[in-house]
Design brief:
Number of helices: 1
Shape: globular
Low-confidence stretches: none
Strand order of the largest sheet: 5-6-7-9-8
Strand content: 35-45%
Bound molecules: zinc ion
């Protein structure tokens, strides 16, 4: 099946997850079945294909669900919003923080994906209302 080609790839922890110049997430897309994943996978999770390609994903998405969280966690003041969004280029469904959303929310709604840093300086992403 050619799975030995997957062994030639860098381990997951060493593959790029962010494209800081382009404000995008970098994941994988399978040329055989079009499955996408973030972070990138070495082998397609749907069909087992070994030829997945690293690709940057869209900066725009459609917010499908959102919830307000009232349970504190380090680095986040409550309440904060979490949501699930579908990237507009057929990329993977992503779960992440939603900032700047005002109530009431009418779903689905367009959002932008923003790449930034946590308070500790680690790369991360969140969603904001499109515009
Ligand atoms: Zn596949």
């Amino acid at each position: 099946m050619g799975l030995e080609r997957a062994l030639e790839r860098k381990p997951t922890g060493e593959r790029p997850r962010f494209d800081p110049d382009g404000n995008r997430l970098v994941g994988s897309r399978c040329p055989d079945c079009a499955a996408t994943a973030w972070p990138a996978r070495a082998v397609c999770h749907r069909c087992g294909g070994p030829d997945v390609q690293e690709v940057p994903f869209a900066r725009t998405a459609t917010l499908l669900t959102v919830t307000e969280v009232h349970v504190p966690r380090p680095g986040l003041e409550v309440p904060y919003m979490l949501g699930q969004a579908a990237l507009d280029d057929g990329g993977p469904l992503l779960f992440g923080r939603v900032r700047g959303l005002s109530e009431p929310v009418s779903l689905p709604c367009p959002v932008d994906l923003v790449v930034g840093e946590t308070d500790e300086g680690r790369p991360t992403y969140w969603f904001e209302p499109a515009g």
